[in-house]
Amino acid sequence: MADGAGVDQALTWEALEAMAPARHDRVNGAANAQAQLRLFGQAEASVRVTLYRDHHAWCPYCQKVWLWLEFRRIPYRIRKVTMRCYGPKEPWFTAKVPSGMLPALELDGRLITESDEILLALERAFGPLGTSMLDAQVRQLRQLERLLFRAWCVWLCSPGLNERQEQQAQQQFQAVARRMEEALVAGGGTWLDPQGASAAEPGCADLVFVPYVERMNASLAYFKGFLLRQEHPQIDRWFTALEHLPTYRGTQSDFHTHAHDLPPQMGGCWPNGAELQHRFAALIDRGDGLGAAELHGAEADPQPGQEGGEVALRALEPVLRHRQTLMARNPLGSRFDQPLRAALTLMLQGIPVRPEAGSALGLRYLRDRISVPRDMPLLSGRALRQALERTAALDGPEQPDALPLQHRFDQDPRPFLQG
Ligand SMILES: N[C@@H](CCC(=O)N[C@@H](CS)C(=O)NCC(=O)O)C(=O)O
């Protein structure tokens, strides 16, 4: 890369503010992790549902319920709660749900916990999404999802597997993944839902698979050098169909977020140390990995209608909103001002700007803490991570400490709750 324009070429905050788009419509627009109310064009008085979910938009069981409400277009309120690995649980929530477990949901004032119970109650109140959860074929598919989940856990979360055990765990996982592919083929169309062969959108049976298959795709690339979508083309087709739907994209996380949020949640994820694994993990950590040919198609590519400019502006919006907090929490403190503007200038205008000397560490600190979709959609997260890394590289190779594996208290949501 060229040396970059001089430090004073970074756009000013005034210029950046002037570029900021009107805030996207969180209430009636496409699915997004920032909303506290979703109406789908209906009146607020019609809301019967409150979903209690995590601030990080990361909990897989919450994502399942979230997707159901979004695809079924049921108006709902959202109240966000901290998961224990990110910070302390809110006392108002443990007063309501003593275990502190998410998701929880209120329907007409009645509190329900356990994601499957929640979906059953929603189905009874509003009618099923596609085929009912109680249909015999859907029950079998739900069992298959649990089998896939367990095979994944054995492979990813068993410490100290020797080479033969690694191979066995992989084979067992792939055997179940092939059963998911067979179910997709048997359905004769895009979706797992028995009625969904020609439907434009997935049914409940599909949504049950989405959260963990998304996490499998990311974690197996990072910790095992295994590309699920390349190895299992029917799963790839299913993913691609989902990624064409803005409703799914609004809930979708990225490889970087999953790779670093899973270990504390799962009690450890174990890399197999293979050459490909090292390479993929390094590419994902750098944040520019998914442009790399080796990983092409492993994670979402831009979809029709996703303009580069719009992608970058969606990344600018939360940075502007939280800029004081980002500075206060960055190791550079107020010295992060110019380097951050330099990275934003690169992201928005394609012009590399030299950051002030000694700023690589601060730029990479933020690169490592963008959380998708909590902060922004997948492609915007990728654009910002890449701009931060490319700007850091103009300063030097200095890397911040590795992200913690036992907890993510560095991601405590409290300082960011305004706005
Ligand atoms: N069987 C439950 C599992 C829910 C669950 O494991 N939730 C986790 C988050 S993924 C949780 O709330 N853990 C407590 C915490 O992290 O604060 C369901 O299906 O709803």
Q: How does this structure look, described?
A:
- The protein has 419 residues and is mainly alpha-helical.
- The chain contains 17 helices and five strands.
- It has a five-stranded mixed β-sheet with strand order 1-3-2-4-5, covered by helices on one side.
- Helix 5 runs antiparallel to helix 6 (163-186), helix 6 crosses helix 9 and helix 16 runs antiparallel to helix 17.
- The mean pLDDT is 94.
- Residues 59-61, 83-84, 100-103, 114-116 line the site of glutathione.
The count of helical stretches stands at 17
Give the spatial strand order of the biggest sheet. 1-3-2-4-5
Mean pLDDT: 94
Terminal CA distance = 36 Å
Net shape: globular
Q: Provide the helix percentage.
A: 40-55%
Poorly predicted runs: none
Class by SSE composition: mainly alpha
| Hetero compounds | glutathione
Give the SSE map.
Elements lengths: L12 H7 L17 E2 L10 E6 L5 H13 L3 E6 L9 H6 L7 E4 L2 E4 L1 H12 L9 H22 L5 H24 L17 H21 L3 H4 L1 H11 L2 H4 L5 H12 L8 H12 L21 H14 L1 H7 L7 H13 L10 H8 L10 H18 L24
Parallel strand pairs: 2-3
Antiparallel strand pairs: 1-3, 2-4, 4-5
Q: TL;DR?
A:
Helices cover 50% and strands 5% of the residues. The chain has 419 residues and is mainly α.
Structural descriptors:
single chain, 17 helices, 5-stranded mixed β-sheet, binds glutathione
